[in-house]
Prior knowledge:
Number of domains: 1
Distance between the termini: 11 Å
Order of helices and strands: HHH
Helix content: 40-55%
Oligomer: single chain
Radius of gyration: 14 Å
Largest sheet: none
Number of strands: 0
Amino acid sequence: MKFDQAKCEELLLALLGIWQFDNGRIWKRIDFDAMDSLFSQGLITNPKGRQESVRLTEAGLQRARELAAKLLLAE
């Protein structure tokens, strides 16, 4: 699959805009509440702890691929 880079960047910028605070500041990490929600849905491994990454579950990986294809495929 080849993704449209411009669409990827627009989606990333939109997400950053959603999670901005203090008039435009953005944490470099993903929103904690969003990560907790994905974990509670069984889509990622537990985001709590010292590790710097999480892993998509099988269900999470499938859903992520579906969404990427729907939203970001190059035409």
